């Protein structure tokens, strides 16, 4: 019999979670078997349970943010060896998901964890960073700017203002850092005031209370910059934040969204609303992410990119459903929740 591991199963569409056993998969060509030490939670995980989106095959294993140690190397891989500490962006297929003790990682979307970073820090990076990157740099799922890891991209947008709605969110915190590397200035973010110092430490130049009215925010932004705002990244993308973001945009600006658009684009599309998709497993994103992975390991090592702050949930995989419930209730603020699958009893 093949070796068994523990996994957290969403038992049926919109059903309940339960820990059970499944076989440890074998890595194929271009894949790594990773023993997971830390898995981060994301809003999409509770949304899948709540509304049945994205996943069709049940019982299903969720989670895409993974950090662990390479246990076995598939054919054709020269860049990783057994024992490497890695972080990777998984997918919603049971063999590649995060909420289990072992997973298959696509080597192309995997990076080594530098010595100065823990598994929990590393697990907070993949989805948030990839979503921030896609919105800013993808031609298909974003506004197609030149990424800072590509030739000529570093600080290319110096002097251009950017507004980030939801600067304390996981996605928002990586948008701020990438905006800094792209040279945007000023970098204006909205958040709860208690996160101001943290958000400024990532590179925001101005932080405004996320509860300000659209008019008050517009007045505050116009005091900071007289240039038209051509890029608003709405990391939250609720109808209310989209409306405020849209109202801040200059005549030819783009509003990048993490959820489907609820704002109505202008006739003739002078201003654009662009929903992003931070998934490396789709063909349209592959080259973008293989470019960023080449640089990401170095950037997290030298502190250029800071992982999210995190809180470790108790009880291994068993602790995840309560964490997702806190997220659903909007009780997670300026922090990423992570779980330790190996601690499952
Ligand atoms: N399209 C994609 O590929 C993709 C990928 C990843 C995520 N997403 C979506 O993007 C959204 C953000 O994900 P995430 O992981 O970054 O979330 P998260 O970190 O869990 O979000 C929590 C944060 O949201 C902030 N927030 C809530 N309402 C806000 C508002 N009205 N204005 C400003 N900030 C607000 C809170 O800020 P304060 O604590 O400061 O109040 C809190 O820090 C989710 O809807 C998620 O499903 C989409």
Automatic annotation (TrEMBL):
Top-level taxon: Eukaryota
Family matches, as InterPro entries: ADH-like_C, ADH-like_N, ER, GroES-like_sf, NAD(P)-bd_dom_sf, Trans-enoyl_RdTase-like
GO molecular function, one term: oxidoreductase activity, acting on NAD(P)H
Gene3D superfamilies (UniProt xref): Medium-chain alcohol dehydrogenases, catalytic domain, NAD(P)-binding Rossmann-like Domain
Pfam families: ADH_N, ADH_zinc_N
Domain Enoyl reductase (ER): 15-339
Record-given protein name: GroES-like protein
């Amino acid at each position: 019999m093949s070796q068994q591991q523990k996994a957290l199963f969403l038992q049926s569409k919109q059903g309940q979670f339960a820990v059970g056993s499944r076989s440890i998969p074998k890595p194929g060509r271009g894949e790594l078997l990773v023993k997971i030490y830390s898995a981060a939670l994301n809003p999409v995980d509770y949304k899948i349970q709540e509304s049945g989106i994205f996943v069709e095959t049940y019982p299903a294993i969720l989670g895409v943010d993974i950090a662990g140690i390479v246990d076995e190397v598939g054919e054709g891989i020269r860049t990783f060896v057994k024992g490497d500490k890695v972080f990777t962006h998984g997918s919603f297929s049971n063999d590649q998901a995060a909420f289990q003790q072992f997973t298959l990682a696509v080597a192309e979307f995997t990076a080594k964890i530098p010595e100065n970073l823990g598994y929990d820090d590393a697990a907070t990076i993949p989805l948030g960073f990839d979503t921030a990157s896609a919105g800013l740099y993808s031609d298909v799922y974003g506004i197609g700017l030149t990424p800072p890891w590509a030739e000529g991209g570093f600080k290319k947008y110096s002097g251009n203002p950017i507004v980030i709605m939801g600067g304390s969110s996981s996605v928002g915190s990586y948008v701020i850092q990438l905006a800094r590397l792209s040279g945007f200035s000023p970098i204006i973010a909205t958040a709860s005031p208690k996160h101001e110092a943290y958000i400024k430490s990532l590179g925001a130049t101005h932080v405004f209370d996320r509860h300000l009215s659209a008019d008050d925010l517009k007045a505050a932004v116009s005091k900071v910059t007289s240039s038209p705002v051509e890029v608003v990244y709405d990391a939250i993308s609720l109808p209310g934040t989209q409306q405020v973001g849209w109202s801040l945009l200059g005549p030819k600006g783009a509003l990048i969204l993490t959820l489907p658009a609820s704002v109505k684009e202008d006739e003739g599309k002078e201003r654009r609303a662009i929903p992003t998709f931070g998934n490396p497993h789709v063909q349209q994103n592959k080259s973008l992410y293989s470019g960023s992975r080449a640089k990401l390991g170095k950037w997290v090592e030298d502190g250029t990119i800071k992982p999210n702050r995190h809180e470790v949930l108790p009880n291994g995989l068993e602790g995840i459903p309560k964490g997702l419930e806190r997220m659903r209730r909007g009780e997670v603020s300026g922090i990423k929740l992570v779980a330790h699958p190996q601690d499952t009893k």
